Amino acid sequence: MKMSKQFPLNALRVFEAAARLGSFTRAGEELGMTQTAVSYQIKLIEENVGEPLFLRRPRQITLTEVGQRLAPRVTEAFEMLQEAVLSARGDVDSALLISSTATFASQWLARNIGSFQLAHPNIAVRLTTSDKIIDLATEAADLAIRSGVGVWPGLDSHPLMRIEFTPMLSPALAETIGGIHEPRDLLKLRIIDAADPWWRLWFEAAGVSDPDLEGRPTSRLGAQTFEARAAVAGQGVAILTPEFYTDDVALGRLYQPFELRCSDGHDYWLAYPHARRNTPKIRTFRDWILGELDPDANGFSK
C-alpha cells in the first residue's frame, strides 16, 4: 500500500492545526482553507482512524480522548519533519531566537552570551524579553528562559538558577535614617513595589508579622532589573536576587543589610519543545548554558 493511502498527510496537518488552535475556523485561516474544507479533512482523518477526534458543540470544539492522545504525537511528527527539511537546506543553524525574562536577559545572559557566540559563530542569536509564558508551538522562538517550577506541558525543561530574594538599597539611602539595624528599619523608607508578594514572605521570615505594606504607594516597574536601578538611584528599598547585583555591591551602589534570603519555590528554567530537543542549535545552546551555570554543582537537581 502506498504511503499516501496509509497516512493522509493533508488531513493530519489540518487536524494538528485545529487541535492546537481549538477552532476549525482559526485552523482554516492559518492554512488558507475554508471551514468547509477543514471539516472535510477532519472527517477524512476520523474515518481513517475509525474514531471521532473532536466533540462538536455550538461555537466550540473539544478533543475526544482519542484526539487528545493523537494530537501531541502529530504535532511532534510535523515538527520533526520541519527540522529535517531545514537541516537539509542548511538553515537549521542560521539563527537562534531566545525569549527570556528581562531581568535574566540583562543581568546574566547579555553579560555572558558573547562566549557562546565566539564558540559558535554559525549561530546568530536573537533575544527578546517577556515575563509572559509564551506558547513555543506558535510563537517565533526556539527556546525560553522563564521563572517557575519547571513543569510546562509539551516542553523539556532544565533548571538554571535558584531564585532567592532579599532587600537591597543604596548605602546613602540607609544613612538618611542612621543605618539599617533591624528588619523593621526598612519600613522607615520607601518600599519599591510594596505589592510584590516577595516582601511579605521576607518580612514574615524575618519575624515582622505586621509590616503594614497595604497602605503604601504601589508601583509596578515591570521587571526586577528596573527596580534595582531605582534602588541604586536612592529611590527606595528593592527586594532583589543578590547574585545579579554583585557588581553594584562591589562598587558601593547597593548593599544587602541582612543575610536572610527567601524563596517562593520559583526558579529560572530553560524550556523548549520536546519534539525539538535534538535540534542542533537548541542542543548546542542547552549544553553551553548548563555548563556555564552548572546547576548540579549548586545542588539544584530537577
From TrEMBL:
InterPro entries: LysR-type_TF_proteobact-type (IPR058163), LysR_HTH_N (IPR000847), LysR_subst-bd (IPR005119), WH-like_DNA-bd_sf (IPR036388), WH_DNA-bd_sf (IPR036390). One of its GO terms (biological process) is DNA-templated transcription. Keywords: DNA-binding, Transcription, Transcription regulation. The lineage of its organism: Bacteria, Pseudomonadati, Pseudomonadota, Alphaproteobacteria, Hyphomicrobiales. Transmembrane segments: none annotated. GO terms for molecular function: DNA-binding transcription factor activity; sequence-specific DNA binding. It holds the Pfam family HTH_1. Transcriptional regulator of the ttuABCDE tartrate utilization operon. Belongs to the LysR transcriptional regulatory family. This is HTH-type transcriptional regulator TtuA. Residues 7-64 form the HTH lysR-type domain. CDD domains: PBP2_GcdR_TrpI_HvrB_AmpR_like.
